[in-house]
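does this look right to u?? 2-deoxy-2-amino glucitol-6-phosphate version
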Amino acid sequence: MCGIFGCLGKHNLITQTLQGLRLLEYRGYDSAGIVYRTAQGKLRVIKAVGDINQLTARVKTRPATSLCLGHTRWATNGGVNLKNAHPQVSFNEQIAVVHNGIIENYDACRTKLQKKQIKLRTEVDTEVIPNILYLLQHNKHKIHQYLRGQYVFAAADTTTAPGFFVAKSGTLPLYLGRAKDTVYVSSDTMAFPATVQQIIALNDGDTGEITLDGSKFYHLGQPITKAWQAFTPLNKQTDKNGFATYMAKEINEIPDVLNRITAAYQQDETLLLHQRQFHRQLSQTDCVHLCACGTSYHAALIIAHLIEKHLHLRAIAHVSSEFTADTLIDKRNLAIVISQSGETADTLACISLLQAHRVPIVALCNVTSSTIAGQSELCFPLLCGPEIAVASTKVFCAALLVGCLLINRFNPADCAALGQLAQTTLQQARQLIHLPANRPQKIFFIGKQIDYFLALESALKVKEVTYTHCEGYPANELKHGPLSMIDQHSLAVVYQSDSTSNAVAEITARGGQVITLPPLAPENPLNFITRIIPAQIMALDMAEQLGINPDKPRNLAKSVTVL
Ligand code: AGP
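got this back:
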């Protein structure tokens, strides 16, 4: 993961870099740092453990500079501390690097550098990059010959004219953006300021020497030309709209999201055309593989269940990282990948495997400019706008509704009623799950069939933002083991249906607390889409009681771009 942002120009570069980094915090917030060129041509590095607020507090002055590069880190190798934070500098402080990804041959690089009497000071793989760049001197574009792995980085060098060097290996994103008198580099185009009108996306194997007067590009060491592409800056909509947290704001957006999707998928010409294309693909398919991670995987479980139930077509949901070369696939299959960010490395790895088997790929994706959207033959947008809180909420409901619309076996009136149903559920959420005064030590969400998948998603939400032990279980499965865990310190939240009464009796008999969650609007077969809302609110309220910021839970990041 990790976010890279930097700029080359004249005005407020340190402030602009901090602003850009703030927009990339979704990629990690273990530590952050910047490097800028001083008036004397030296590199000045400032770092902080924690998020961009911590870094900003340490940036006491913001002198004019010609170059500033910044980084926000999600730790992979090397602990979370100041030493391991980026930027990482070469042994002689000539070159500084901000990096996203993993250098797989880090040990071999380290040994080579030690043989040349270059001592490394940290535990992070990144530190080898500025030192190898130092050894390459004017041949930096050959860097890919020395490093292995998926990585992107930007580097500043005191011995060159003001500018920076960039490199990309693999699928991690890195973009350049151009405004009137500034050039930017960013892990995500979303972080570019509104003045950016043109962009370049780096490709696997590219390197570039970027200056204000012009840039030189190479592919696997050979000179190439790369053209600037027109770019329309995105509407960032990053304010919390009066809510205390993004998670609260995003849960409250669910009614609007559902209404927006229903309208767009019934009226938008392109979406209608794509739906017809999808139905043609389905008619030629003997098995649908759905691949996704986390919350998106829980949506995949439900959509797979509905495809089998309504279309009588074999459908298998896979956790992306468990989808391997051993999984049986062939070109008569169809793949549906689901992703909020569109950058999840585990899901991108599935796409490579699927492409190798010439399996058509359809994406359900919220970020339509993302790598996953770009790698899919058809991309169905989830139309949620930015989802910033690490815990995914509105996108889960959106993926379910888009999945149901694609299955095309539901009454349009039931789809149209969902926005109002979500609104009612939001209003009643805290009565539906009334948190007990004594905080439970362990929580079980249980349900049957689709409700079991909702139980899994509910448990994930509570775990993510409250750090409380929590599990989702099929209702009838408790007696096969987990019932031994039930005592007066446990709480079971039961997605009530005709077949959950035995489980409730078994838990109550053993002193466990039980909250039953009846379906709202049972007559609407799509009511499960909004049924998750009380659990989302429960997780949010518990986080607030525990003093945890649910937008940035510890150890996590919004976009998971490492395998
Ligand atoms: C959801 O609350 C999580 N933060 C996480 O499980 C997420 O759903 C998962 O990492 C997949 O991300 P994606 O949808 O962006 O691919």
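Residues 432-548 form a domain with the Rossmann fold fold (CATH 3.40.50.10490). idk if thats expected tbh
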